[in-house]
Design goal:
The chain folds into 2 domains: 291 residues, Zn peptidases (Aminopeptidase), CATH 3.40.630.10; 112 residues, Alpha-Beta Plaits (2-Layer Sandwich), CATH 3.30.70.360. 36% of the residues lie in helices and 23% in strands. The chain contains 12 helices and 16 strands. The strands form 3 sheets. Strands 1, 2, 3, 4, 5, 6, 14, 15 and 16 form a 9-stranded mixed β-sheet that branches. Strands 7, 9, 10, 12 and 13 form a 5-stranded antiparallel β-sheet that branches. Strand 1 and strand 2 form a beta hairpin. The structure holds (2S)-amino(hydroxy)ethanoic acid and manganese (II) ion (2 copies). (2S)-amino(hydroxy)ethanoic acid (HGY) binds next to loops.
């Protein structure tokens, strides 16, 4: 097996050994002991090749190869190590290990590069611990202020900054990334869908990343006795929620060919078999690559909630958990990556990403591109997630060739 393939495999195995749910998918919440173990492994590997490590106030890790002009705008590559609960072994990890391996190749090959080359690990990409996705990259690019970051808490009431200090993380770069700091951002990621497989392509080049709105809808009724309360006398928020959730499915189908909406979490209080619920809360994740379509789908969901609750005499609140605008990635970078891919006798497939990525935030201040590898059966965010090592290694070769040329 090619040395590169072998090292990528060993890196992925080493990272995924840090897992809170062995045998039941990967669970690696940001700043958890498992996360710290995985991050420390990558940091140690970066230190072995002489990279300078800094950690910013939002927990993003950067390993820098300074280059001939260490103060110039850097070529950045990387992804994330946090996971959803019971997720897969490849989401985020593939982008980190290919960046690590490309950095090794640059150092071992004594490649002269003018610009700094950064390997980055973005914190809290999934939002699984602190409830807001793309949090590390949003804070690093100034979309989340230090005050907002300090106020964000996990389900146990531990704040983001307290969780960092509890994990013993020392911040040594409180700066925000500014235009001019980054020459380009490249991220390798699994596709997490079935488009590449359907097209028989080994490599996807992302033209746009879908926008996301994540909401939390709370509906308040009256908890009451399940046996003595006639149906006509009930204020049952779960009945309203059920109707809204069904309507959300139809709203997405009616909004646009690529619109998707998901209710992934629902809680019912007091959650007793013989008690009519008093309160129901559920999440809504809405996405589309066109801002107008996304916004009209969200507006329709809000209107549906208003109408349903007023008809039933129920009160409600809607909180926005997170938002990311749809982003078009750099045509220059896509053309450039396409040329690099074709030089390796592989025909890439241009596509939209339905999944959100940290690269969307970096695209606001630098030319950005994403290289996708196929996901078997399109599965992701589940233990069955799988991508072929040879596709990951190919993506690494393309990443390496691109970074060497961009940093020259
Ligand atoms: O939810 C997403 O799109 C990504 O996996 N965080
Ligand atoms: Mn991911
Ligand atoms: Mn993910």
């Amino acid at each position: 097996m090619k040395d590169r393939n072998n090292r990528i495999l060993l890196d992925m195995e080493a990272i995924n050994a840090y897992n809170a749910t062995p045998g039941n998918g990967i669970t690696r919440p940001t700043f958890s002991p498992e996360y710290q173990g995985a991050a420390t492994y990558v940091i140690d590997e970066l230190k072995k090749i002489g990279a300078e490590i800094t950690i910013c106030r939002a927990g993003n890790i950067r390993g820098r190869l300074p280059g001939a002009e260490p103060d110039a705008a850097a070529v950045m590559m990387g992804s994330h190590l946090d996971s959803v609960a019971h997720g897969g072994q490849f989401d985020g990890v593939v982008g980190v290990v290919t960046a690590l391996e490309a950095a090794r190749a640059i150092v071992e090959g004594q490649v002269n590069h003018r610009l700094p080359v950064d390997v980055v690990i973005f914190a809290e990409e999934e939002g699984s611990r602190f409830g807001r996705g793309l949090l590390g990259s949003s804070a690093w690019t100034g979309r989340v202020t230090p005050g907002q970051l300090a106020a964000i808490q996990d389900a146990q009431g531990i704040s983001f900054t307290a969780a960092m200090s509890n994990a013993g993380i020392e911040v040594d770069d409180s700066g925000e990334l500014k235009p001019g700091d980054v020459r380009a951002m490249l991220e390798v990621h699994i596709e997490q869908g079935a488009v590449l497989e359907k097209h028989g392509s080994r490599i996807g080049l992302v033209e746009a990343i879908a926008g996301i709105r994540q909401l939390n809808i709370s509906i308040h009724g009256t908890a009451d006795h399940a046996g003595t309360t006639p149906m006509a006398d009930r204020s049952d928020p779960l009945q309203a929620a059920a109707g809204i959730i069904l309507a959300i499915d139809q709203i997405a189908k009616d909004s646009g060919p690529h619109t998707v909406a998901t209710v992934g979490r629902i809680t019912c209080e007091p959650a007793q078999v013989n008690v009519i619920p008093g309160r129901v809360r559920f999440s809504v994740d809405v996405r589309d690559s066109k801002l107008k379509v996304l916004e009209s789908a969200v507006a329709a969901i809000i209107q549906c909630t208003k109408t349903s609750c007023s008809e039933k005499g129920l009160s409600f609140e809607i909180d926005q958990l997170s938002e990311a605008e749809p982003v078009t990635l750099s045509k220059n970078i896509i053309d450039f990556l396409e040329k690099k891919t074709r030089s390796m006798d592989v025909e890439p497939h241009r596509m939209i990403s339905g999944a959100g990525h940290d690269t969307a935030l970096l695209a606001g201040l630098a030319e950005a591109g994403m290289i996708f590898v196929p996901s078997r059966d399109g599965l992701s965010h589940c233990p069955q997630e799988y991508s072929r090592l040879e596709d990951i290694a190919l993506a690494c070769d393309i990443l390496l060739a691109a970074v060497i040329e961009l940093a020259a």
